UniProtKB/TrEMBL annotation:
InterPro entries reported for this sequence: ActR_PrrA_rreg, Bact_response_regulator, CheY-like_superfamily, HTH_Fis, Sig_transdc_resp-reg_receiver
PROSITE patterns: RESPONSE_REGULATORY (PS50110)
Lineage: Bacteria, Pseudomonadati, Pseudomonadota, Alphaproteobacteria, Caulobacterales
Domain of life per record: Bacteria
Keyword annotations: Phosphoprotein
Native source organism of the sequence: Phenylobacterium terrae
Residue positions, PTM 4-aspartylphosphate: 64
Keyword Phosphoprotein carried by entry: yes
Response regulatory domain ranges (all copies): 15-129
Keyword Phosphoprotein part of the UniProt annotation: yes
Pfam family, one: HTH_8
The protein, known as: ActR/PrrA/RegA family redox response regulator transcription factor
Length: 185
């Protein structure tokens, strides 16, 4: 683990917007980034984030991709409009190529899967414009990524097993077995 505190201490503006509808994750990530030297503002919805951006445009932002009241892409655009030099990182538990491309086109500099480690987030925020951050120390396993995707589709289908199985092109009983198990590490 590399100590990023000195690099963060040298920043002229340490303002950071953290937007996530998962309150425990938002609080934990906010505290961890604050301990590293950032000055976070924590919000739980797109509307709160837009108001925070309007009141004080942050130098950095860590935004969830999907929230109940909208998408993080709307906030990326607001941050970019208010402060073109801001660095924005998108977080999502349901990563796929299409949403990564949309986030980058909207102005995000990086795209990380949840649960993202605070050091990975800080590294991504501090990465130089022409260099990409190093790969995460402990990325999610392929089984965990698959499980996260299945959970997301299941949630989007209103916890309807038959509809989820149809959309995933999977037998219903196979899906039921997967849903009955604990999340892989």
């Amino acid at each position: 683990m590399v100590d990023l505190s000195s690099e963060i201490a040298d920043l002229p503006d340490k303002s950071l917007l953290v937007m996530d509808d998962d309150a425990p994750l938002r609080t934990r990530l906010g505290r961890a980034l604050e301990q590293r030297g950032f000055e976070p503002t924590l919000v739980g919805s797109v509307q709160e984030a837009l108001a925070a951006v309007k009141a004080h445009p942050p130098a950095y932002a860590v935004l969830d991709m999907r929230l109940e009241d909208g998408t993080g892409l709307k906030v990326v655009e607001a941050v970019r409009d208010a402060r073109p030099d801001a660095k924005v990182i998108m977080l999502t538990g349901y990563g796929n190529i299409a949403t990564a491309v949309a986030a980058v086109k909207a102005g995000a500099v990086d795209y990380l899967s949840k649960p993202a480690d605070a050091d990975d987030v800080a590294r991504a925020l501090l990465a130089r414009k022409d260099e990409s951050p190093p790969p995460p120390e402990n990325p999610m396993s392929a089984d965990r990524v698959r499980w996260e995707h299945i959970q997301r589709v299941y949630e989007l289908c209103g916890h309807n097993v038959s509809e989820t199985a149809r959309r995933l092109n999977m037998h219903r009983r196979t899906l039921q077995r997967i849903l009955a198990k604990r999340a892989p590490r």
